[in-house]
Each structure stands twice: as structure tokens, then as C-alpha cells.
Amino acid sequence: MKIFGITILLILLFSSNTSFADEPSNWLKNEIDKILIAYQNSDLPNENRFLMIEQTINNNFAGTGIAKFVAGDSWKSASNDVKKEYIKNFKRHLALNIASMMQGYSNQRYELSKSKIDEKNKIILIEMEIFSDTGSVVITWRVKESKGRYFVIDLIVADISLVVTKRSEFNSMLKTVNNKLSDFNNILFEQNNESYAKIID
After folding, report:
1. Model confidence at 15, in pLDDT bands (50, 70, 90)?
2. Structural class in CATH, domain 2-200
């Protein structure tokens, strides 16, 4: 997961120098900039910054679908109440991870390309090139349009999927509780509380 930690940090921290004119790319830029605005305001308390990130992530990532995929076989045997609690925990887990990465905020630059359609999988692909003093890196956002709006469903870096990597990480943890999602909820809840305390400190 280290590669994704570094990459998402770069994506969300850099100020934009965009090069596009289509709706999906424009939408993505606007959502990234919402987080940037929060971290450019030095008067904003840490808790408020986190809540802005959490709202942006919850609104724009396909959190329920990603959470279900990441849970693997454990999802099938869980009750509806356990599933709801897990989705809630997973969404906060995702927001906390991104908020933690944002703590080292610094200004740099990115460019978004025009979006293109993957007709086979019915998804939109948007490439982002991130520039640094030593070169650049390209990340592909996988976006889905549903009910008249867009949702991020994955990030691809060096042909590695964030969602697939997160599933591998969670499945390893689920094995320690015999793939019982209810028990895993307890672990994830405690991890979230610890991370939250560090973020708002």
C-alpha cells in the first residue's frame, strides 16, 4: 500500500494546472480542489479539515461498491446490519487515510487529460500527470457515471489497482477473525478511532 499512500498524497496535495475541456475531467478537478481549499486555510481547525475531506470522499467515491468488493467472501455471510456498519467503517477508513496523507501539505502541480471511454467496461478513464523536481508520474482515475453524476471507482498506478490492493490487505486482516465481518468491524472501528484522534490533535 505504500505506493498508493504516496500517490494519493501527491494527487490530492498538488495545486492544479489543468489541460482539459470535458465534463468528467472538470468534475474531477473541482472535487480535488475542494480538499485543497481546506488545506490552504491555515485558520481551519484540523477536525473541520477532516470533515470536509470525509464529505468529499463520501460524495464522490463509490464507497459502498468498493467496500463490498474489498470484503470479498466475508460479505456474503454477513447480516444486513453488519454490512451497513462495515460500509460506514470503510468509508471513514478511506477518508482517514487520505486525511492522514494530507497532513504534509505542500504546493506542486498536476495536469488532467481529457477523459476517454472504456467501452468494454463502460467506465471513464482520466489520466493525471503529477510533476515534481525529479520527473512526473501518471495515475489513471477510473470513473463511473450513474444517475446523472460521476463516481470514482478506482485508481491505477503502474498497472496496480488501489481497490485490488486494498482487498488483498483487508482479506489478510479478515483471516485473523475467520472471515467474520462482524468481528472485523470491531477492529476497523478501533483503528478508525485511533487515526481520528491523530488527525484532529
Report:
1. very low
2. alpha beta
